Structures are given as C-alpha cells and as structure tokens.
Amino acid sequence: MTGTMEQEGKRSRSGFGRWIRSRQGQQLLIIVAFMIIPLTLLIVFTYFPFGEMVKFSFYKMKYATPIDKRKFVGWQNYIDVFRRDDCFGALKLSLYYMVGALIQLVLALYMATILSFKVKGGNFFKGLMFFPFLINGIAIGFIFKFFYTRGFVFDTILAWCGFNPENLPYWLKDQAVNNWSLVATSVWRYFGQNMVLFIGAIMSVDAELYEAAELDGANKWQIFKAIILPSIKTIVTLNIILSITGSLSAFEQPYVITNGANGTGTYFVIMNQIAHTSQKVGLACAMAVVLLVIIFACTLLQKLFFKYVFRDAESEDESYKAKKARLKAEKAAAKAQKQKGVQA
Amino acid sequence: MKKKRVLAIVLSAMMTVGVTACGSSASSTEGSSTGASSDTTAQAASSDASEASSEAASAGSSDGLSYANLKLGQDYTDLKATITMFNHRTDMDSDDYGGKNWKSYLADFNKEYPNITVKITTDTNYADDALTHLQSGDYETIMMIPAVDKSDLSSYFMSYGDLDTMKTQINYANAQAYDGQVYGVPSTATTQGIVYNKKVFSDAGITALPKTPEDFIADLQAIKDKTDAIPMYTNYAAGWTMGAWDAYIGSNAIGDNTYMNQKLVHTKDPFQNYKDDTHAYAVYKILYDAVNKKLVEDDYTTTDWEGSKSMLNEGKIGCMVLGSWAYPQMEAAGKNGSDIAYMPFPITVDGKQYAAAGADYSYGINVNATDDEKAAAMVFVKWMTEESGFSYNEDGLPVKAGDTKTKLAFDGVTFLEDEPAKEGEEDYLNEMNSESELNINAGGNDKIQKIIEHAANGDESFDDIMGEWNKAWDDAQQTNGISVDY
Fold first, then answer.
1. Closest to B298 (Cβ–Cβ): which among A150, A172, A262?
2. Given a cut of 90, is residue B129 above it in pLDDT?
3. Residue B38 domain-assigned?
C-alpha cells in the first residue's frame, strides 16, 4: 500500500508534484481548501435544487409522481405559460405594486431627509415608522383584513373625517380598488425599512458639505439635489431595484388578505395555486423560470437606466457634459491629425 | 515556514474531509438505520397482524373476541384493564363543552364496567400527530384511524371481524375495511345538507322546508324581505368553505352513489344544464342566483368563519351550506343552540330527496396491545357505538345497524354512501382534477369563489362559467385518455 503510494508520488513529482509545491500551486490549494465548504453548501442547497427545478419545468408531473412515470413534454410547459391568460394577466397586477413601490421610495426618501436633520422627537418617529416592518407578515394580513372590513376601522376613521360611509367603496370587494388596498398595505409595511436604509446612507454624508452649502446660500432643496442625492445614489439604486423585483414577486399581502381571490391573484399566488392545488409541478416550475428571466431583464434595464441617469455623478472629477465635450475635442483633434497625415 | 504552511494545508484538508465525511456518514447511517428499523417494525407489525388476524379468525368463535359476539353488560364485566384512547375532540375535554363531554361518557361507562379505566388524550393537530404516533410504533390502545393506506390497516389495527358479519352490526362497515376484514368502527357519521336557524326561517313565514332550488331561492328572498338576517352566508374569505359546495354534486344532486367516484370522470360535459334542477349545474346555480339577487352578505371578501358561527346562532344569518359536522359547532356557538337545525339540500330527483352520508373518524384498536387490553378496548368501542348515544349527541347519523335515532330532520330523505372508485381507476379523479384544475372535492376553492365574483359583478353569465368548466373537463379527459362513457 505504502509502496505504491511512494511510487506514484515519485512519478507525479516530476510534473504535478513540482507545480503543487510552487507558490502558485500552494495558493490554489489553500483557496480550494477554504472554499470547498461554502461552495459545497451553495451548490447542494441552491444550484442543485435550482437545476432540478429547471429540469422539472420540462416534465408533466405531480409531487408524488414516481421518477419513472414523469413524462417529458419538451417546451410544452413554457408554451402554456405564454398561452394561458391567467399567468401573464397576473403579471399586470405587478404594475400596481410597482407604482406602490415608487410612491413608497419617494415617501421614504422624503421622511429620511427630514429625519436626518435635527427634528424634535426624531428617534420616536423613526421607531414609529419602522415598527410595521417588525410585525410578522401573516399578522399584518389579519390586521388589514379587519381594517378593510365594511364598517370597521378604515370606514370609521373616514367617517370621522366627514366621509359618508354609504359612498365609500368596498375596499376588498370592489375590483377597481382592491389591488390598491393591498398595495397600500405593502407600502405601509416596507416604507419604514427603506427609510431606515436611506437615513443610514444620509448620515454618512460629510456634515461639512452642508455647512459649506449653507454658507454659499443654498436652500434645502438645492442641498438635497446637489449633495444628498448624489451621495446616496448607490443605496437609492439598490432600493429601487429591490422594490421593483419585489413587486414582480408580490405574494404575502394577496395570499393572506384575499387568498388571491377576486382578481388579486399575483403571479406568485397563481403559481402557488397551480403547483399545490392543481399539482401541475412542471407548469409551475416553468412559470418560475419565466419570472426569473423577466426579473433578470428588469434588473438589467434598470442598471442601464441608472447608468444613464447618474452619468454626471459617475465621473469623478468632470461632469458628463464636460467629459463629452473633451472626448469630442479629442476626436476632432485626432481627425485633424489624421487628415494632416493624409495630406502629407 | 514551509513546514507550517504544509501543516496548515494538511489541517484544513483534514478538517474539510472530516466535516464532509462526518456529514455524509452520519446521514447515510441514519438513513439506513431508520430505513432498517422502519422495515423491521413494519415486518414485525405485519407478522403480528397476520397472527392476530388468524387468531381473530380462528379464535373468533372460541375466544369470543369479535365485535359481533361481544355482549355488552355480560362479557368481560370483571375484566380489569387500563386502556388509552387518542382522538381529535379537544373541545370535549373541556368542562364548558356545550354537549356531553368525555368525562361524563367515561363516568357512564364505568357504571357498567367499573374495572376498565380509559384514559383519553386529545389533540388539535390530530390528523398529523396520529400518523406520527402510528409510525413510532408506540401508540394508544384505541385511535381514531388517521389517513393510512388501506393495505396498511392490518399492520396497525386489529380486525373487528369479517365484513359480512360487521355489516349486520354497524353501518358504514366499508369505511375502514380491507380484504374482507373490518378494522374500524365509525365514531359517528355525517351527511351533507344545510345548517339553518329555525327561528329566522319561521320569522320569514317559511313553514315547509324547501325541496327545489326555486323554493330555496324564494325562501331566501322571504328572509331578506321580512327579517334583518343575512339569508345565506357564503364564508367566501375562508376559502375551504367554498370548496365544500363540491360535496353536493354527487349523491345529493343526482341520487346515484356511483356518480362521484365512478361515473363523473367518464361523463361528458358534467356541468351542463340537465334542465331538471339536478346535477352539478343546479347546485352551483343556487349559489350564483343567491349572490346575483343579493341574498348573501354584503361584503363577501371580509367574511369571518369563527364569527359566522355565533352570527348563525344569534339569528343574524339564515343558513349556511356546510356538512352536518358543522351543526354541533353552530349549536355550541351561543345561547340559542335550540334554534339551530339541519335540513337536506334543496334538490329533488324524480320526486325524491337524497343525501350523501359517510363515516367520520373510526375507532381502531392497537394490534400490538395485550389480549386484556384488546378485550377492554373492544368493550369500550361497542359501548360507545351502541349505548353511549355519542353519534346522537353529536348530531350524527346512527352507526349501529338498524338504529334510526338522529337529530337531523331528514324525514323521507334517502341516505346514500358513495361507492369507492372501480379497481384500476382509483387515480382517475385525481388526474382529472389536476389536469382540469377544477379540483372537485380537492381544494378547488377558487373556482367557487369565481362564481360569486362573477355573480356579484355580473360580468359573466352562469352558463358561460359552466361552459368553461365543461371544456376544461372534456379537454382533461382527452389529455388523460379517459374514456367518455356517459
């Protein structure tokens, strides 16, 4: 046993053995040795299941179908996703949540800017507005079910404000408003979290900049536009991307409050229904893959969009316009040079 | 320096190997050991079972331990034993329970059998926990048989006797039978109808119970016109209460106990209008019409199931379409329990009314118990069935053969027990449900909710909805290759 090992060792020492003892080889060995645990975990619990899901999306199967009875159907599940009107119809609901997400971000940014300056009871307000994020999503669902019930909390409050309860819509029954009701719940819950993130980012801005700006006579809006927003653009971009992808995969509110019934079934709710009630696992997997592609595309588009919007802030020492002008000048100079050369 | 580095590499390599090896070996041994143990228990249990069943079969007459031969009050009166029972009725543990609770049942039992001690444990999550108890191999002497495969019944429970003999003793003997042996005696039996408030109905001037959809809608209208009560409460938001409507499309609407499990999958356009106020069409039409004519609650999206019980009890609701299991809960939900009653579903087939009836949980006796415990358990089960009045008190249908005592006002209604699916076709309904996405009697709540939405918004006619369902059903038959025979 040891004899063969020694022999093998001798043989490999010539090529691989020497390389592995070299600095490069040792580096690689250490990297591999330390990476193997997290990589194994990642592959076993994330990429392998994901691969299985992609595989399932090409089969017609239920959860309990034994492996040999699963039927390969090719692209049929994907074709069904695009043909069925409930799948893509549900994606339209994401538009409600996207609008909600934008309102939520603007609101959060506004409150964060105000609260990051000296405000009386600022911490109290921060806590108050962050609180909904700490409540369990299921509990929020039940709170709002009662909140929106006819003649209960919301109607009573509006009645105090002078609305005639007779003229108020049914918040969850009326299909013209029920999605907005759910979106409002979502905004109520997540806006505090966004706000805290923004406050954190704003805090990191150097206070001397404000002072300098005030000395120069800038008003609050100018300070916000010229100092705060460019300084926290990374966190703004991140929050917007997260909110938009989040609104594509909205699930909790419609699932808990309305069970996805009455025209509030978002893509995820429909997917859950298809997978668990109707047991069309293949179709649901295909839906998941399609959604993933859509989210990828959205994220990419947003990245490009923000690259364009923040083009001024991106360049460190010269503005976008200046850079453009410089490039243009350089180009013209090069052209002139070239022409000169040709002439010569 | 170099040595150190080598050492570090070796160490880290060892650690990773150690960790991964540890993980894999542990999981593999665990897997194999549990596999082995479950195998052995299964084997042991099945061998036990075969012994027991052969014992029961051979000793049935000599030993006397068979349900049919057991004479209550004469046999085993001096038997001293302690047995346990595990069941789902947590409410009956409480002293505040509106009906007769476990304590008083046991007190009555001990008057006759003072030496048999029965210890009862109840559980809110019974269906799951009971399976865990069974799988552990260490379970109570008497259990309410949970969802185990019929072929496994004999590994867990002793036989009460053969099917033919048991049929002379109890109704629904088929419920937990396998291979000609009966392993469970139903604790009670339920049927499908409508739970209603008698006072609301009489206040509205209704004297006779409705027998056709037309009468029923007229009655609901009368309740709306003459009382303040909500005529019919849909419980839309709870979801499962909507799926409950599927239970009426079989025996109740057609009067054929082979329809639900055998014929439906082979029927072309099962949701079509048969034009005689029967079949699934008539059942769902009642709901559509009631909603369309605003005979249900105002805002159906925010209904509250727990609250609906007391509302019915207090006469704020006229009726709800739910199985008879709900009847005792409605009675117990307030002070006016005597106002609550249960009526057959308002569909008449050729002049006769039918109702689907089925067994509730059945008592099973632990096959691994000692002979004394088995005997004591058998005595208790037979006493519960024949002398305790349990199924009557719990508003169920009688389980003892020939008994007619029940609180359900189902005079002139024929009870039908659904026949099981034909051999080889057991999976057909599941396949059809999955493919058509209608999920009949299988959590298809959203389709019934949609009926309500369309009826309330008036954006789709009932016939169009049924047309869609028919198409989904027919397409599913084609995809699954199921023959269309009816």
1. A150
2. no
3. no
- List CB contacts (< 8 A) between B445 and chain A: 259
Identity (one letter) of the amino acid at B430? Answer: N
Q: Are A201 and A232 in contact (CB under 8 A)?
A: yes
Q: A28-42, A315-329, B170-184: which has the minimum mean pLDDT?
A: A315-329
Instruction: With respect to residue A25, please indicate whether it lies within any of the assigned structural domains.
Output: no
Q: Chain A contact for B4, CB < 8 A?
A: no
Compute the nearest-CA separation of A177 from chain B (Å): 13
CATH number for the domain harbouring residue A94? 1.10.3720.10
Are A26 and B5 a contacting pair at CB < 8 A?
yes
- Cβ atoms of residues A62 and A72 within 8 Å: no
Q: Check CB contact under 8 Å for B444 and A277.
A: yes
Rounded Cα gap, residues B5 and B3, in angstroms: 5
**ipTM (interface pTM):** 0.74
Q: Is B468 on the interface with A (CB under 8 A)?
A: no
Domain that holds residue B200: 191-358+421-480
- For A277, the closest of B16, B439, B456 (CB atoms) is B439
Q: Give the pLDDT score at A138.
A: 86
Tell me if A280 and B434 make a contact (CB, 8 A cut-off): yes
| Beta strands B177-178 and B181-182, pairing class | antiparallel
B237/A145 touch (CB, cutoff 8 Å), yes or no: yes
pLDDT in tens, B433-478: 888 888 888 888 889 999 999 999 888 899 999 999 999 999 999 9
Q: Let me know if residue A335 belongs to a domain.
A: no
B361 touches A at CB < 8 Å: no
- Quick: pLDDT tens for B354-379: 888 888 889 999 999 999 999 999 99
- Cα-Cα-Cα-Cα dihedral sign, residues B130, B439, B329, B193: negative
Task: Please give the span between the terminal C-alpha atoms of chain A, in angstroms, as a whole number.
Answer: 80
Q: Is residue B327 part of a domain?
A: yes
The CATH number for B89's domain is: 3.40.190.10
